[in-house]
Amino acid sequence: MYTSNLEGVQLVQKGKVRDIYDLGDSLLMVTTDRLSAFDVVLPDPIPEKGRVLTQISLYWYEQMRSLIDNHLITADVDAYPEILKPHADALRGRSMIVRKAKPLMVECVVRGYISGSGWKSYKKDGTVCGIPLPEGLKESDRLAEPLFTPSTKADVGDHDINISFEEAAEIIGADMAEKVRDISLAIYNKGVEVAAEKGIIIADTKFEFGICDGELILIDEVLTPDSSRFWPKATYKPGGTQESFDKQFVRDYLETLTWDKTPPGPSIPQDVLTRTSAKYLEALELFTGKA
C-alpha cells in the first residue's frame, strides 16, 4: 500500500494528488488515491484512482507522441533503480520515472462544450473566461470551436484562477502562449476523435507543459478523469448536466452542502466514493481495454 513515505527517497513535492520524489537526474512521480475537488484535497481517497490515472496517462502519452513529446522515461517498476526496489509493490501501476522539466506557470484548459464553471459564467454575462459566446446556448451544448482558456497554477489549498490569453502571454511570453494554445487545441481535437470511437465525449480538459533541454513537452497527467470532463456519447443530451466518467458524483454531492470550498474538505459518503471509483475504472477499460 502506498503511504506517501518512501524510506530513503527524498519527497520534494506533495501535490493535491501526486507525490514527486527526487532521484537525482530524474523524478519519481507517484499518483495517489487522494481526491481533489474545487482545488481542495478531500479526506477520503478513491480506491484504485491512482492506478487508473497513471494507466490512462500512459495511454495518451503514446497516442499524442506524433504531436508532442512527454516527460516519461519508464513506468516499468522492474526497471526502477535499486533504491526503489523495496517499494515496488506500492509503486506498481501508479508511478512513473520522468525527466526533470521546468513547468510553465499556466495551466492550459480547453473547453469543447459549455459546462461547469463555463456554464455558470455564460449564464451570468454571456461569456466564458471573458470570451463572448452566441446567445441561446443550453447547458452542455457543443461549442462551434473549442476554446483555449488558460488559468494560473495553484498551490495545494489554493484555487486556480481563470486568466485571459493576454495575461497568459505576460506570464510565459507571447510566443510560448501561442505555442501552448495551438498544441493544446491539437491534443484536445485528437483526443476527441479517439474518444468518440470509444463512445466517450471529452467536454473539457486541462494540460500542463514544461521545458526540458530547450524543448516543450507534456508533463503531469493527460486526458484523465481528474483533468477532464468525460461524458458517455450514448446518453448525451444538451440542456442539463450529463452522466460522467469523472469525479462529478463528488462535485454534485459537494454542491448540496453549505461548504465554502475552502480547506478542510468534508468527508464523502461511501456510496459516492464507490460510484466514483467504478466510473474511473470504467473509463480505464473503455480507453485502454484494461480491466
From TrEMBL:
<keyword id="KW-0547">Nucleotide-binding</keyword>
<dbReference type="GO" id="GO:0004639">
    <property type="term" value="F:phosphoribosylaminoimidazolesuccinocarboxamide synthase activity"/>
</dbReference>
<keyword id="KW-0067">ATP-binding</keyword>
<dbReference type="GO" id="GO:0006189">
    <property type="term" value="P:'de novo' IMP biosynthetic process"/>
</dbReference>
<dbReference type="InterPro" id="IPR028923">
    <property type="entry name" value="SAICAR_synt/ADE2_N"/>
</dbReference>
<dbReference type="InterPro" id="IPR018236">
    <property type="entry name" value="SAICAR_synthetase_CS"/>
</dbReference>
<comment type="similarity">
    <text>Belongs to the SAICAR synthetase family.</text>
</comment>
<dbReference type="GO" id="GO:0005524">
    <property type="term" value="F:ATP binding"/>
</dbReference>
<dbReference type="GO" id="GO:0005737">
    <property type="term" value="C:cytoplasm"/>
</dbReference>
<keyword id="KW-0658">Purine biosynthesis</keyword>
<keyword id="KW-0436">Ligase</keyword>
<feature type="domain" description="SAICAR synthetase/ADE2 N-terminal">
    <location>
        <begin position="12"/>
        <end position="262"/>
    </location>
</feature>
<protein>
    <recommendedName>
        <fullName>Phosphoribosylaminoimidazole-succinocarboxamide synthase</fullName>
        <ecNumber>6.3.2.6</ecNumber>
    </recommendedName>
</protein>
<dbReference type="InterPro" id="IPR001636">
    <property type="entry name" value="SAICAR_synth"/>
</dbReference>
<dbReference type="Pfam" id="PF01259">
    <property type="entry name" value="SAICAR_synt"/>
</dbReference>
<comment type="pathway">
    <text>Purine metabolism; IMP biosynthesis via de novo pathway; 5-amino-1-(5-phospho-D-ribosyl)imidazole-4-carboxamide from 5-amino-1-(5-phospho-D-ribosyl)imidazole-4-carboxylate: step 1/2.</text>
</comment>
